[in-house]
């Protein structure tokens, strides 16, 4: 894992010192809120519905056990004993006091973490595939690239006052687990004639105008990546619509100018940036890359795993659902679900964080990942250790076997916490999970991604959910719109609206009717919800939601 | 015709704690909605809002929130204000636990 250089440590310490002084000046009245707000946002501090919220970056979703222990300690000392893991590989503390935040940031710095650029109109925390460094289908580990971009973008003097926020995600595999097509810039590591390079997508994003990213360049050479990215952001920095915040994101710029014009402008700018870069970026990358070297994998047999798999049906169910293929023989990637039925998606108590940290230390080469799907990943575990790991997870409520199933729901904090929300998300997620657990249908339904946002900003990724739910305020009442057919992977697609929304009381039965329609119409268990939707189209689902007449009326229209 | 003025209270978040507070008739910031001054006159409400907005050292984000006048004091007309008064629905945190 990456270790801070002296420069990194000094930079974070200096920023923390500055922020402590800014907080003091806000409290003694030297700074007004209007003056203080951009400063606190640059350091990840929001003011939400009931309290402040501190958003801490987990760069490319990677944590060591020591870092996870520190997150738990912070939750206990300055918050309410839990943290919320987000869709952008951050952790949010929902209840800090303003006066405690400088101490929280200093505590984070002790384990080489920070909250810099987790908000504001800057380049945000760079996210990556949560199976990075472990996945069997990986061309190269995306994290060295993500770390290079983190260093380049942190406090970048040209990019501190961008037209709007700017989000970058990196995938090292052809199978996209990082939703790169829904980012301002998505980077996919590719191979051409034996050379590693990068496919660069631009202009993706969710929110009020959802767009799938377009390929700007099919192959950017390794040495050209930073000057190329600098050209992209620089072109947008000048063209981006500062007159209207709803039209400021690069997706609108690409839409308005067209990908070809953007490509011409980027290529022209790239000629300048490439000449200006002096090779320091390439040297830096060469220093970063070895720090992400794979751990020394052992070559034990998997007899313990095989025995438990045969003998224990609970373990078998968990292994079938929560494990993914690892690139090293005898190893697996184990996902720890933070979606226990009826609980808040993405929340972990400090005790759970410590249990997970200790498992990572003891069995997992001291590595953890946070997924954008709000779960925790043990990227490198030997299969023979899995029975023990499972038993320990089980005793702490962490062995829910539901990864990728209907109860593995992404949900933003919604109006339970967020000042921007128009409706609640968490209770809807809790009720759907509880209901399908009661019905004991989850495994039969199979792969089905439900994603819920509590406002049009789409932090809950509802546009790319197989079933998306968007909570709105309709004349002072919570109302939930449904979209179908969204896809967050390499075949990314934006879901289509079914029609009028449903009240808080109606939304769970509506989801149940949708799922019933799928089970009725699918060709067999091997046809997933998304595949069935693509084959059947909207009609049978509309009929399930609104009745036969409503569906016919739309067909006629 | 302009819309009739509906009853309101002045609310904000406390600077240090960040929690929801309401302006009382005797110029205190109270965490309890029941103690809030119910403003029924538009001109009076605007003056109170101006004064409250200048209290930078105490609060952030001062605004007028719609309320119904009831026997038990002001009651939120919108669910957002109902959540602000109570706290989140997933845990017994915030005002529902503290008050």
From TrEMBL, chain A:
The name on file for this protein is Sulfite reductase [ferredoxin]
The Nitrite/Sulfite reductase ferredoxin-like domain covers 52-111, 345-395
The UniProt gene name for this protein comes to sir
The species this protein was found in: Tropicibacter naphthalenivorans
The GO terms this record gives for MF are: 4 iron, 4 sulfur cluster binding; heme binding; metal ion binding; sulfite reductase (ferredoxin) activity
Nitrite/sulphite reductase 4Fe-4S domain spans which residues?
119-272, 409-549
Q: What is its EC number?
A: 1.8.7.1
Q: Which UniProt keywords apply?
A: 4Fe-4S, Heme, Iron, Iron-sulfur, Metal-binding, Oxidoreductase
Q: What class of enzyme is it?
A: oxidoreductase
Superkingdom, natural source: Bacteria
InterPro entries reported in the protein's UniProt record: NIR_SIR_4Fe-4S, NiRdtase/SiRdtase_haem-b_fer, Nit/Sulf_reduc_fer-like_dom_sf, NO2/SO3_Rdtase_4Fe4S_dom, NO2/SO3_Rdtase_4Fe4S_sf
Higher taxonomy: Bacteria, Pseudomonadati, Pseudomonadota, Alphaproteobacteria, Rhodobacterales
Q: Does the keyword Aminoacyl-tRNA synthetase apply?
A: no
TrEMBL record, chain B:
> Which InterPro entries has this protein been placed in?
DUF2849
Show the segment(s) annotated as Disordered.
80-99
Spell out the protein name for this chain. DUF2849 domain-containing protein
Q: What species is this protein from?
A: Tropicibacter naphthalenivorans
